[in-house]
Amino acid sequence: MQLVRLIYVSVMKMEYDKEEIKKILRMARSKNARNNITGLLCYDPKFFLQYIEGPRDAINKLYASINRDERHTDVTLLEYAEIEERLFGNWSMGFTPSAELDKSILDEYAGDDGKVDPFSFSAKQALSFLVEVVALKTLPHDE
Fold first, then answer.
1. Residue 95 — φ and ψ, nearest 5°?
2. For residue 61, how far is the Cα from the chain centroid?
3. What CA–CA distances, in Å, run from 24 to 30, 31, 54?
4. Where are the domains positioned within the chain?
5. CA–CA dist 49, 115 (Å, integer)
6. Which pLDDT tens digits describe the chain residue by residue (143 residues)?
7. Which one is the CATH code of 3-136: 3.40.50.2300, 3.30.70.100, 3.30.70.580, 3.20.20.140?
8. Who's near 8: CB < 8 A, 6+ residues apart?
9. Which of 35, 64, 71, 91 is the most core-located residue (most Cβ within 10 A)?
10. Helix%, strand%, coil% for the chain, nearest 5
11. CA-wise closest residue to 36 among 79, 94, 96, 89
12. Pairwise CA distance, residues 113 & 26, whole Å
């Protein structure tokens, strides 16, 4: 089975409250577990930055579904690559809201305006950003 990773960012059509995000995560975790997909989601009221990894066919189908999802606009692929092993294998979908990110990460990746804009990330920057988020923050494992 060929494993791939995919990193994308999208604009959210509307801001979601905590309960709606929990509902989205429950559904994603259930579907991802069934399809052997793992990953991490960083949520900001203005964007989703997501890293997903798993079998090529499952990732391709999930990404096609994300592109059709009416909650997203401007879905932008930052990276699609074959991988030897998973980075986020413990989570069918780890989660962190941008409001809880460590200030040092925000400062390191902020643009001239002082804000993090994942649409400006290279694939390498997006991957580094997400790895640092995990390293500096204890994310809950799937429930």
1. -145, 140
2. 16
3. 10, 11, 19
4. 3-136
5. 14
6. 799 999 999 998 777 777 888 888 888 889 999 999 999 988 888 888 999 999 999 999 999 999 998 888 999 999 999 999 998 888 777 777 777 777 888 888 888 887 889 999 999 999 999 988 887 665 444 44
7. 3.30.70.100
8. 48, 49, 50, 63, 66, 75, 76, 77, 78
9. 91
10. 40, 30, 30
11. 89
12. 34
Element (H, E) at 96: strand 94-97
- Closest by Cα among 125, 119, 106 to 10: 119
> Which single residue is written with the structure tokens 């989703």?
48
